[in-house]
Specification:
Layout: H1 3-24, E1 29-34, H2 44-47, E2 48-52, H3 57-77, E3 82-84, E4 98-105, E5 108-116, H4 123-158, H5 164-226, H6 233-264, E6 271-274, H7 276-286, H8 288-291, E7 296-302, E8 309-312, H9 313-329, E9 334-343, E10 346-352, H10 387-397, E11 401-407, E12 411-419, E13 421-422
Parallel strand pairs: 7-9
Antiparallel strand pairs: 1-2, 1-5, 3-4, 4-5, 6-8, 8-13, 9-10, 10-12, 11-12
């Protein structure tokens, strides 16, 4: 394997470890630092090898600089894992504190994996991230030993008078590389087992919960549709309530599964022709249960004529429903406006409501998983706090954009924009 191939393999391994650490942290962030041989005055940018959970490279580098400046000794010289309090530079992603996992092999500290947590980390997550850092440690040390081995071989070839000591050193380095190859295989096998267990759990949850839930919902609908006179009005009301609860739980389950598929890259894009007026009408029909009993008017402002275009029909439909359902849930009275138009090669949609709104301090967190604006209102405005997270992730998949404006007590406006293709 050439030096360039080794470098690419190392970079891939470090990026993968960093990304998985951010996921295990519960949607947090991670920074991987590594030492640079011969660099006596390192800075954060030179030490940063991989980052995950940041909106941009600039944001990652700014966070790395802030963390590296205050914890450099712990990061580059500490031999033991460390837990520190929240770091302001990481924002919400580090509100639960950070952990520093040294990347060390045989007493050599080559760097550290720094992980930020949105909330206090569980012991399971901490252990899994520690295992990831162990694998990254071996990858990094393996690369450094390989470079050292190449230099030693080159020196032996150029120097005919090389002594036995250098030959012994060459043998030791080769043995160390072989031992690390074996350890990497073992670590990868463990990580693959963990991944398989997670996938099996999701499949089982889908099968064991969704299948009987569908049967229960269908049975309730069948009984209510039968208009059996022997069933009292009170019993029918209870069954309608059970139907509402079951449907809400079904949607939450579907959101969890879709978020999982998105993170695993298992939600492919399927391009089809999209008729926007029909899609909006379907979304409005789907939220009728949410607005039932409320003095709410839904107004459509659609470009006329609205040409048919090509996009992922199912995902656009899901985004529209989630935004409209969210607006209906948090609006007690007034008007909800849904606006749609084509802007060149982009579909631009907007959903405006006159609901409870979101205060400025909370707006940066509304797309975070399980975030709810006010926990005290959780019983009134039911939901797991996954709708806007799923909307954001679906738009990332579709290479779209989203922005939100809101004022407490005045309502919320959410606008999204996705690229589309012209229909033939």
């Amino acid at each position: 394997m050439s030096i360039q191939e080794q470098c690419e393999k190392l970079s891939t391994a470090l990026r993968s470890a960093t990304s998985r650490a951010a996921d295990l942290a519960g949607g947090g962030c991670a920074l991987l630092f590594s030492s640079m041989p011969g660099n006596n005055t390192p800075d954060a940018r030179e030490q940063l090898r991989a980052a995950a959970g940041f909106d941009s490279t600039d944001a990652a580098e700014a966070a790395a600089k802030a963390i590296f400046g205050s914890t450099r000794e712990v990061i580059m010289e500490g031999g033991q894992p460390a837990r520190l309090a929240a770091v302001e530079a990481l924002g919400a992603n580090g509100a639960g504190g950070i952990t520093i996992h040294p990347l060390a092999c045989d007493g050599r500290v080559n760097g550290a994996l720094v992980v930020g947590y949105p909330a206090e980390p569980s012991q399971t997550a901490y252990q899994q991230i520690a295992q990831l850092s162990g694998s990254a440690s071996i990858h990094l040390d393996h690369a450094l030993i390989s470079a050292e081995l190449v230099e030693l071989r080159k020196k032996l070839m150029e120097d005919d008078d090389s002594g036995e000591d250098q030959s012994d050193e060459l043998l030791k380095l080769s043995e160390a590389l072989f031992a690390q190859d074996i350890e990497l295989l073992r670590n990868n096998e463990k990580l693959d087992k963990i991944e398989k267990l997670k996938n099996d759990f999701i499949e089982k949850m889908s099968r064991e919960l969704r299948t009987p839930l569908n049967s229960i919902i269908e049975a309730i609908i069948s009984v209510l549709a039968g208009e059996d006179e022997s069933i009292s009005e009170g019993a029918k009301a209870s069954m309608r309530n059970a139907l509402d609860e079951g449907t809400a739980f079904q949607r939450t389950l579907e959101n969890i599964l879709d978020l999982w598929r998105l993170k695993q890259g298992e939600l492919p894009i399927q391009i089809r022709e999209v008729g926007m007026p029909e899609l909006i009408a379907e979304a409005i029909f789907s939220v009728q249960d949410t607005i039932a009993g409320k003095p709410i008017t839904i107004t459509k402002q659609i470009e006329v004529p609205m040409p048919v275009f090509k996009a992922d029909l199912a995902k656009v439909n899901q985004i529209l429903f989630l935004l409209l359902d969210n607006a209906a849930k948090f609006t007690e009275a007034g008007e909800i406006v849904i606006d749609a138009r084509l802007d060149g090669d982009f579909l631009q949609c907007e959903v405006r409501d006159q609901g409870i709104g979101i205060c400025a301090d909370d707006q940066e967190y509304v797309f975070d998983e399980f975030f709810q604006v006010d926990e005290r209102l959780a019983s009134k405005y039911r939901g797991a706090g996954l709708g806007l997270t799923l909307v954001r992730d679906l738009l990332v998949l579709l290479e779209g954009e989203i922005d939100l404006e809101s004022e407490a007590g005045q309502g919320t406006r959410v606008r999204f924009r996705i690229p589309v293709q012209p229909a033939q």
